[in-house]
Task: structure prediction
Amino acid sequence: METLGYLIDGFGVALAPHNLMFALIGAFLGTLIGALPGLGPANGVAILIPLAFTLGLPPETALIMLTSVYAGAMYGGRISSILLNIPGDEPAMMTCLDGYPMAQKGKAAEALAISAIASFMGSLIATIGLILLAPLLAKFALTFGPAEYFALFVLAFATLGGITGKNPVKTILAAAIGLMIATVGIDSTGTQRYTFGVLELYEGVDFIIAIVGLFAISELLFFIESRAGGGKGPMKVNKLSLSWKEIGSIFPTTLRGGVLGFISGVLPGAGASLGSFISYTLEKKVLGSKGRFGEGDPRGVAAPEAGNNGASSGALVPMLTLGVPGSGTTAVLLALLISMNITPGPMMFTQNADIVWGVIAALLVGNFLLLLLNIPLVGIFVKLLSVPPKYLLPIVTMVAFVGIYSISNSAFDLYFMVAFGVAGYILRKLEIPLVPIILGLLLGPEMEKNLGHALTISNGEWSVLWSSGLSITLWALAIIGLVLPVVVGPVLRRRMRAAQENVD
Amino acid sequence: MKCNDRVFGLLMLVLAVAYGWGATQFPEPFGGGEAIGPETFPFLLAVVLALSSLYLIVKPDPGSKWPPMRTGLELLIAVVVLIAYVLLLQPLGFIITTTLAVGTLCWRMGAAPIRAYVTGLIAGIVVYFLFTIGLDLSLPLGVLSVLEGS
Result:
């Protein structure tokens, strides 16, 4: 019952008027960002991080705002899936399958409302799961020694590509690059490493700059290359007519989807894409011929939506309890925590209980706000979205610049950001994933510290890293995480594509 | 187009070697003799990077196409605009540089020039007042500071 008390305190934090206001702003901005093609949740949160700093927000408010952005961005991705059959990000792919047919039948508003309700249910279920599971996992994590943590970090990198990932070697390569960037600066022994005598590098590379550069600026360059500046076609939304009976009929679907999504969110390497895919496939199996999947069945919208929102809340479990994020967006949220001097991990549940539970409560509040925001305001969102990216993206980029500039007041940081942007563009062209680079930057110092502690305890004996049962398990999982995508990945990807093509 | 990965792998291999060599050049930390020095972790990373770039050289993926010359030029313009923005931010002030940068980017992304620069001007003014009055953060006014009459 201790947990319940914390949760009530958490709601106290999340429902404080100013926090509620920032949650609302976050949900609104997030929806907008998520709806822009290509600008997924990770990018959205990254662009808004400088804003959180410039506003001088206290940590819990900043986190609440950004979790709302996260939830909003997940939701915003659906608008273009449903109205235009263009998924805003990968997990939204499955929503196209029944969402677009519904829109074609003139039921776009219903599809959007159902996806909002299903998202809310998915997050609700996953948040309950998070509340139950996180304290247990945090307690368990207290038994981890430095060697186990080192193995855990390796596991995080190994599974980051996800089971649907393409080339695990590129994930490793990217992780190594990120970790190498993290070693720049003065280390714990006072040695200067790779600073080349440049004063600005003494404190290392600021990961906020790296994140905004890699994500936001490379996105601008991609837009220019694809000449997508003109924006999307006209979008129309009918007047909503949804009965309680219809809402009731998707209820069991959202329940199943939420649970499945949560599980795939918590498990390393599964993630939101798999969550929405599994939920959709299961729903199709369960309902069999009773459903009209692929032709605009509301349950076909509800299942993947509940699944992927369940997964995105589930992904917070490893991030909050172990300090090891399982997805790009949670990695960006981790960046925010670290830069606010909060070390995620088991200790956070005792030391910063108000923040942890405030964020958990904010997830629920944020999703509820989205539900309220989206059903009446969807028309406004659709209008705002018809502002072509050729106007929107340059402005967004400049806001990111100014955000960074107003924190540091240093032109050096801005040049660095442009350089990261160009590098991000080239790496994405080469299909090198960017998230492991970010994660490497974030986890590098901790990883080195744990390696150091483990080796100091063992007097330099490297075998200490795989001497306990737990660490051996973690290493084994890491190896499976690397090998499995090579074996199973192509099959899964083909199935997802096949499901997509059946509709077209 | 397999040369993409090959060239990148080669570059990363060079980086790995340079990085590893760099680690040997660290001065011995004061009091030395610890189980792990400042060079241990970098060595490990250099090995990982070298191995994975070797793999890329041996087994490259079919790469994606690079943009044609014209698009490449547009990209270059965008990068130059961003660099120029940083360069001119202090001397010209936020509103003017933002007008120029946002305007140029919008224009190059396909907006009509006048609309593009008007968008830039409006964005510059709105963001300036949002930051200075709303958030109480100082942004450089640059040459426009004469308007303040101080």
